[in-house]
Design brief:
There is one protein chain. The protein contains 4 helices and no strands. With 97 residues, the chain is mainly alpha-helical. Helix 1 packs antiparallel against helix 3, helix 1 runs parallel beside helix 4 and helix 3 runs antiparallel to helix 4.
Length: 97
C-alpha cells in the first residue's frame, strides 16, 4: 500500500505543476496579443477617435503586467483578455468611422 500512495502523490504533484504552468503560457500569450491589438488601435488613431476603449485597453494590460509581476497568472490572463476585448471594440468602432 505504501508504494501505491507514493505513486499517487507523485502523479498528483506532477499534475499540479503542469496545470499551474498552463496559466503562465496562456497569460503571456494573451498579453502579447493585447499589446499587438493596442498598437494597431494606436496606429489607427484610437487615442483620439475612441479614447475610452483605448485607455481601458491600456489600463487592463497594465494591470495584467502587475499581476504577472506578482506571479498571479490567472488574474494576469483575465486582465489581458479584458484588454484584448477593449482593443477589439475600439478597432471595430474606428473601422465604422
Amino acid at each position: 500500500m505504501g508504494k501505491r500512495i507514493w505513486t499517487f502523490l507523485c502523479i498528483l504533484i506532477l499534475l499540479t505543476f503542469s496545470l499551474s504552468g498552463c496559466y503562465y503560457f496562456s497569460a503571456t500569450k494573451e498579453m502579447k496579443a493585447a499589446e499587438q491589438l493596442i498598437s494597431e488601435l494606436k496606429a489607427a488613431g484610437g487615442p483620439t477617435l475612441v479614447p475610452y476603449e483605448y485607455c481601458s485597453a491600456e489600463k487592463f494590460l497594465e494591470n495584467a503586467k502587475l499581476e504577472a509581476d506578482q506571479s498571479d497568472w490567472k488574474h494576469a490572463r483575465d486582465f489581458a483578455s479584458r484588454s484584448k476585448s477593449a482593443a477589439d471594440a475600439g478597432l471595430a468602432q474606428v473601422k465604422k468611422k
